[in-house]
Design brief:
The protein is mainly α. The chain has two domains: about 30 residues, no CATH class; about 260 residues, no CATH class. Helix content is about 70%, strand content about 5%. The chain is built from 14 helices and two strands; from the N terminus they run E-E-H-H-H-H-H-H-H-H-H-H-H-H-H-H. A two-stranded antiparallel sheet has the order 1-2. A hairpin with a 5-residue loop joins strand 1 and strand 2. The longest helix is centred in the middle third of the chain and has 28 residues. The radius of gyration is 26 Å and the shape is globular. About 10% of the residues have low confidence.
Length: about 300
């Protein structure tokens, strides 16, 4: 046995410890290589490795969202329900807009469900970086984790409001068909639309805090130009394609088509256009966010 390779040490307990000096030497000489662009190259791998942080942030937001409120998570159901009541009275009773042969309340609520998810996700995503300033300025992790995790809270509210929709379907005797399976990909499209717009605004919000005040206006304005309180069929045919430049038009029309059955028609050209715009918005949102992400810690 080579004496220069092995070292024998006697501990206070009386036991003998044999240490490999070659291994210790190699460990002490291990180099830390800092290479330009290395973090960029493994960004998506890091995003997967930080998935536990994603779960933690999402669960934290869910716990604190309705903390110290009198009725708690009931707000997730009450807000879209009361909006549906107001829209039914204004557009259905007073303006007497057509409902395409289905009860007006469920026509509105079938559209309110994806819109509430989209608007809430957009607001949470847009403000997420500012709400986590201390975390961003002190610790490295893929910043994309924060806006993505914020959308999970809105997804929880979405499922709770979905229970009301199922109850209304039973009340009006509207039974699910095979079209119900389309709701899942349509929800993914609504998620992509909220993420695309949210990533752009959240990145801009870091440098220009004015966007924090613009977001509520965008959400409120979008509610009235989207076919939530009325059917998009009232839009003249020559304007339908132009109207579909609003990405949520295709999602809302798709939800009504999937939920309300054969009585609801789907304007296919406008639907395809809305989906294409959502894909472009999502891709551009990620690209813009990644391009500006490296400056967040310096200016936030």
């Amino acid at each position: 046995m080579r004496n220069d390779k092995w070292k024998f040490e006697k501990e206070t307990s009386g036991s003998i410890v044999i240490r490999d000096l070659d291994i210790e030497k190699s460990m002490s000489q291990k180099e830390l290589i800092i290479e330009a662009g290395r973090t960029e190259g493994q960004y998506w791998k890091d995003l997967w490795e930080y998935r536990e942080l994603f779960y933690f942030l999402a669960w934290r937001d869910i716990l604190v969202r309705y903390k110290q409120t009198a009725i708690g998570i009931t707000w997730a159901v009450l807000r879209p329900f009361l909006t549906m009541v107001v829209f039914t009275i204004v557009f259905g009773k007073l303006a007497k807009l057509p409902s395409e042969g289905v009860p007006y309340p469920i026509l509105v609520f079938a559209a309110m469900l994806p819109w509430q998810f989209f608007s809430s996700s957009l607001s949470e995503c847009s403000n997420s970086l500012i709400d986590n300033t201390n975390l961003i300025s002190k610790v490295y992790f893929p910043r994309l984790v924060i806006p993505t995790s914020s959308v999970i809270v809105s997804l929880a509210d979405f499922f709770l409001a979905g229970m009301i929709l199922l109850g209304m379907m039973l009340w009006y005797e509207i039974w699910p068909t095979w079209r119900f399976i389309v709701l899942l990909p349509l929800t993914v499209v609504a998620f992509a639309a909220a993420m695309g717009g949210g990533l752009i605004i959240s990145a801009l919000n870091v440098k220009y805090r004015d966007f924090r005040y613009v977001i509520p206006f965008i959400v409120q304005f979008g509610l009235y130009i989207s076919p939530v309180g009325f059917s998009s069929s009232i839009v003249p045919d020559k304007w339908r394609l132009l109207y579909s430049l609003n990405p949520m038009v295709g999602v809302i029309d798709g939800y009504r088509w999937a939920i309300l059955g054969k009585d609801i028609s789907l304007y296919l050209p406008g639907f395809i256009l809305s989906l294409a715009l959502v894909v472009l918005l999502f891709i551009f949102g990620i690209h813009f966010f990644r391009k500006t992400e490296k400056t967040f810690a310096d200016i936030i």
